[in-house]
Amino acid sequence: MTSPDATPATREGILSSLGPGLALAATGVGAGDLLAALVAGATFGEVLGWAIALGALLKLALNEALARWQLATDTTLLEGWCAHLGRPFQVVLVAYLTVWTFVVAGGLMAACGAAAHAVWPVVGIPVWGAIHSMAAAALVLAGRYAVFEHVMKALVGVMVATLIASVGLVGIDLCAALRGLLLPLLPAGSAATVVGVMGGVGGSVTMLAHGYWIREHGWSGPRMLPTVRRDLAVGYLLTGVFGVAMLLVAATVLLGAVPEGSGALTACGNAIRDGASTRFGPATGALARALFLAGVWAAVATSMLGVWQGVPYLCADLLRNLRGRMGGGIDTRGVAYRAVLAWLAVPPMVLLVIERPMWVVRLYTTTSGLFMPLLAGSLLWLGRRRDLMGGLRLGAASTAALAASLVLFGVLAVRQIADVVFVR
Questions:
Q1: Looking only at Cα atoms, what is the longest distance across the chain?
Q2: In this structure, what are the phi and psi dihedrals at residue 257, rounded to the nearest 5 degrees?
Q3: CA pair distance 161, 167, nearest whole angstrom
Q4: Which of 49, 64, 336, 342 has the most CB atoms around its CB within 10 Å?
C-alpha cells in the first residue's frame, strides 16, 4: 500500500504506484469498445484514429475530475450523489443499477464466451461464458485488492502487446495510420460512428469503481492528485493505443468486407466470434490471428474481472447510504458485497441461452451509455463548487472538457435510445 503522503520519485517507485488507473482503463475496454473500433476501421479505414484518441482524452478528463472530488472531500462520488441529490435519486439509481448489472454481466459473459470460443471452438459460447464468470468470481472471493491489481496489470500487458504485435504482422499503412491520428477528418456518413467510437472508449458506470480502488491503494488527500493523474494518464494512454490498434487491424483485414449501417456491427461481431479466420491472409499466417484473438480475449477478460471486483463496491455503498450510513471502507467479506458479486456471476447466465451474443453485447453497451450524461453533468455541478472542492475546484480546461463530454454523451444517449425505439 502506498503512503498517502508518498510521491514516488524513482522509476521503480513510479511503476509500483500504478494500479487503480490501469485497472479502471482496462475494465473500460469491453466488447462494446472492441466492436466500435472494428466497425470504424472496417467501414472507414484508418481515418478515424483521431476519434479514438479524443475519446480517451475525454474519459481521462472525466476520471481526473472524479478523482479530484474524492481527494478533496474524502468521499466517493456516489456518496456525494447521495448527500446532494436526495433520496428519490438514490431509489432511481438502485433501479438502474439492478437492470444494468444484470445486462452488463450477461453481455460480458457473452463477449468472453465468444472470444474464448474463437480460440478453442470445441467448447460452446454459453459454456465458455459461464466458465469465465465463475472463474472471475472465484478470483475476487479468494484474493484481496492487491491480487486483483496484479492480475489486471498482467492482462493489460497481454492485451496491449498482442494487439500491437498483430498490427505489425498484418502490414498496416503507417502513413495512413498517422494521418488518421493527426488529421481530424470526417468522411461522409461517419458522424454516428465517430460519436459511438468517442463515447465507447474507456468505460461508463465502472468509472465509479476507481474511487474505491484508490482508497484500497491508500491514496487520499490533495497531495496525491499528481500521482493519481499519472496513473490515469498511463491507463488511458494504453486504452487509446489498444483502440487504435483494433481500428488499424480492422482497416487492414476487414475493410470492404462488411456491409454499411447496422449490418457492420453484426459482421464485426462475427469476426471476433469466428476469429476473423477467413480474413487473415496467408502473408500474416496463424501467428497474427492468434495474437489478435489473445488481445481480444485479454480485453474482455479484464473488463469482466474489473466489473466483478469493482461494481459490488458501489452497489454495497449505495445500499449502505440508503440505510443512512455514510463513510468508511466497504467490507469485501461482507454480505452486501458478496451478494452483489453473486448477482453478477450467476443469474445473468440466462442471457447466454439466447445464443445471440452480439445482441446481448449491444444491449449492455446501450444501457451503459445512458449513464454518461449523468456522470459528466454531476461532475460539472459538484466540481465547480468551491465550498466542497476548495483548492481542487475544477479549472477552465477541466470545465471545458467536461462540458464537451456532456454534449457528446448526451447526443450518444439520445441516439442509443432512438436505435432501441425505432429498431426494426
A1: 63
A2: -100, 0
A3: 10
A4: 49
Instruction: Please name each of the domains of the chain with its CATH number.
Output: 11-422 (1.20.1740)
Distance of alpha carbon 52 from alpha carbon 32, whole angstroms: 13
pLDDT tens figures, 212-271: 999 988 898 999 999 999 999 998 998 888 889 888 888 887 776 555 544 444 555 555
Residues in the chain: 424
The span from the CA of 195 to the CA of 199, in Å, is 6
Place of cell 475530475: 65
Task: Classify each residue of 23-57 as buried b or exposed e, where b means 16 or more C-beta atoms within 10 Å of its C-beta.
Answer: bbbbbbbbbbbbbbbbbbbbbbbbbbbbbbbbbbb
Q: How far apart are CA 309 and CA 331, in angstroms?
A: 12
CA distance linking residue 372 with residue 370, whole number of Å: 6
Q: Please, are residues 140 and 341 in contact by the beta-carbon 8 Å criterion?
A: yes
Looking at per-residue pLDDT, the higher value among 271 and 371 belongs to 371
